[in-house]
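Thread: STEEP1 domain-containing protein, structure

OP (GT): Posting the sequence first so everyone is looking at the same thing. Length is 144 residues per the record. Can we get the structure tokens written out before standup tomorrow? I want them in the notebook alongside the other entries.
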Amino acid sequence: MSSPEQSIHTYHCICTQLVLASTSTLESLKTRSSDLSQILPLPDLSSTSTISHYASLTNTVVDIKPTVIRLEDGFEKRYFHKCGRCDLNIAYSLDQSQFEDTRTSSGAREDVAFLIPGGLMSTEDMKSGKDMDAEIAKVGVKAA
Ligand SMILES: [Zn+2]
């Protein structure tokens, strides 16, 4: 089942819903300078070529209509990816018209998403959070 070369990192919404699986860690992703979101390439999974990076947003609902965001130097159209459980915006796609090579098209660009800072936690973090609660409980028992 699991490939020995690549491990999958999983990330959760702050409500604990699993929302992202990727071979890349969030720390390894490039950061968008304008809003510090992390740039997540989304590979075409139907492609037969070897994929070195895998990522998939899961349990999310993507806006059908874009939200226009006002920036210092203009506007941009964002399609928010919301957590399917708590409705929090965890990522967004940009409109195809925002990119040089698809300037005359519209609709969400599907090969890249931008992760909103602070919206996700890794499964490891979530587990260690639980362990910490257990530790606190233990200490509490000892102190009593
Ligand atoms: Zn959530």
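GT: Both are above now. Quick notes for whoever picks this up: Residues 13, 15, 17, 83, 85-86, 88 surround zinc ion (CB under 6 Å). The chain has one domain: 9-143.
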